[in-house]
Amino acid sequence: FDPRHYLSTHTCGFPKTGPHRLRFLLESVKDLRETLQKKGSNLVVRKGKPEDVVCDLITQLGSVSAVAFHEEVRELL
Question: What is the CATH number of domain 3-61?
Answer without folding.
Answer: 3.40.50.620
